[in-house]
Specification:
By secondary structure, the chain is of the alpha/beta class. Helix content is 39%, strand content 10%. It has seven helices and five strands. A three-stranded parallel beta sheet has the order 1-3-2. A two-stranded antiparallel sheet has the order 4-5. Helix 1 packs parallel to helix 3. The protein starts with 12 loop residues before the first helix and ends in a 6-residue tail after the last strand. The mean pLDDT is 93.
Length: 216
């Protein structure tokens, strides 16, 4: 598993789709966003299920519905990916897409007792949370059945000294990059056919959460 590129300033479904379809031999995509939204109000069933399972560990979902997101870019992107042959929860021998959610994924992958607080709070708290997240992700660079290769050009995103001086948009950008790495790891587990739980369904909306033995 290797970070090959980081694409920036992709603000529309069309821009993301164009970037993805230009990736050679792309087989699977993990996306941190609600991909299927059919409920007019309230939470999706998968969001309720995540709340029941992980709410006590502060990893519940935000609410997604057609009232809040009548024209969701993520749902539009997902529909266009389906048209390109990327089926929801599809066979790993074909092209697939999955919706993932970083907080429960991290809890399961690293056996965390609580949600890792790297997204909210004061600047110092977010820096500290990102540094902890970067350390956890970097721990996959050693020997093991799943390793993460971070080429030199991307190592600054994981550097605690670099993270310690970030603020504003730069700090949010680093968070987004680390989130994308989580999606990469989740995608790798899906492709490998590792143990998992799917909350919800491909008909009404779902969230894929990998479940594995504690990573090194």
């Amino acid at each position: 598993m290797k970070i090959a590129s980081v694409h920036e300033q992709l603000y529309t479904a069309n821009a993301v789709l164009e970037t993805l379809t230009n990736v050679p031999n792309l087989r699977g995509i993990a996306i941190d966003a609600p991909l299927i939204i059919k409920n007019q109000s309230g939470q999706r069933d998968c969001e309720k299920a995540i709340g029941r399972e992980y709410g006590s560990r502060h990893a519940s979902c935000h609410t997604s519905n057609l009232t809040k997101f009548p024209d969701s870019d993520a749902a539009l992107l997902s529909e266009r990916l389906v048209a390109e042959g990327f089926t929801h929860l599809g066979s790993t021998s074909e092209c697939w897409q999955i919706e993932c959610y970083p907080h429960p994924a991290l809890i399961e992958l690293f056996k965390l007792p609580m949600r890792l607080p790297y997204k909210r709070g004061r600047v110092g708290e977010k820096r500290s949370g990102q540094a902890t997240l970067a350390r956890l992700l970097s721990s996959l660079s050693g020997e093991g059945y799943l390793t993460l290769e971070v080429p030199e050009g991307f190592r600054h995103y994981f550097d605690p000294d670099y993270i310690a001086q970030l603020k504003g948009k730069a700090l949010k950008h680093n968070e987004d990059v680390l989130d994308s790495v989580i999606c990469l790891i989740v995608a790798a587990f899906y492709q490998l056919g590792m143990q998992d739980r799917v909350f919800g369904s491909a008909g009404d909306g779902y969230i894929y959460v990998p479940e594995v033995e504690q990573l090194p």
